[in-house]
Write a structure and sequence with these properties.
Layout (H helix, E strand, L loop, with lengths): L1 H21 L2 H21 L3 H18 L5 H16 L3 H19 L4 H16 L3 H18 L5 H17 L2
Length: about 170
C-alpha cells in the first residue's frame, strides 16, 4: 500500500500545480483545499502525522477563508484533524476537533442525521481508547438510537453500532 500512497501524493501534487496555473482564483482555492485535505488523509494513512496535520490545517485554513463557517467541508476538516490526533492518542485535541465538526453538522443537518451518528461514534471511539467505557457506551448507544430511527434494522451502519456496543461489553465483561 505504501507505493499506492506515494503515487497518490504525486497525483495530488500534479493536481495542485494544474489548479495553480490554469483555473480561476476561487475555484483554484477550493480545489487546492480539497487536494491538501486528501494529501493530509494519505499522510495519516502512512502514519506520518506531522505532514498529515500540516496539510489538513492548510486545507482548513483555506476553507475557513472561502466558505461559509457552517460548510460541511469545514466540518470534515475538523473531523479529519480529530482522527489524526486520535491516532496519536492526543485525546483532548481529538475531542476538541470532533466537537467542532459535530457543532457544524448540527447546524447543517439538525440533530437527526447519519453524519451526527458518525460523530457520536468518533466520540465513543475516543472514550473507548481512554478506557472510559461508560462514556463510550453512552455515545455508541446514541449513535445506535439515531441509526435505528433513520435506517431500517438491516443497514450496515446499524450493524456497526451493534459491533461498537459489543466491543464495550466484551472489554468490560458485561
Amino acid at each position: 500500500y505504501k507505493g499506492a500512497y506515494n503515487k497518490s501524493l504525486q497525483y495530488f501534487k500534479k493536481a495542485l500545480y494544474f489548479n495553480n496555473t490554469i483555473i480561476g482564483e476561487k475555484t483554484k482555492r477550493y480545489t487546492s483545499a480539497r487536494n491538501y485535505n486528501n494529501m493530509g488523509v494519505i499522510y495519516k494513512l502512512k502514519e506520518d502525522y506531522k505532514h498529515a496535520i500540516f496539510y489538513l490545517n492548510k486545507a482548513l485554513n483555506i476553507r475557513l477563508q472561502i466558505l461559509n463557517q457552517y460548510h460541511i467541508d469545514i466540518s470534515d476538516s475538523y473531523n479529519d484533524l480529530g482522527e489524526v490526533y486520535a491516532a496519536q492518542r492526543n485525546f483532548s485535541k481529538a475531542l476538541e476537533y470532533f466537537q467542532k465538526g459535530l457543532d457544524i453538522r448540527m447546524v447543517i443537518f439538525g440533530d437527526k442525521h447519519p453524519d451526527i451518528a458518525d460523530s457520536y461514534d468518533n466520540f465513543g471511539d475516543i472514550y473507548f481508547d481512554k478506557k472510559d467505557f461508560t462514556d463510550a457506551l453512552n455515545f455508541y448507544q446514541k449513535a445506535l438510537t439515531m441509526r435505528l430511527a433513520i435506517f431500517n434494522t438491516h443497514h450496515p451502519k446499524v450493524a456497526q453500532s451493534y459491533n461498537n456496543l459489543v466491543k464495550v461489553f466484551v472489554t468490560t465483561n458485561d
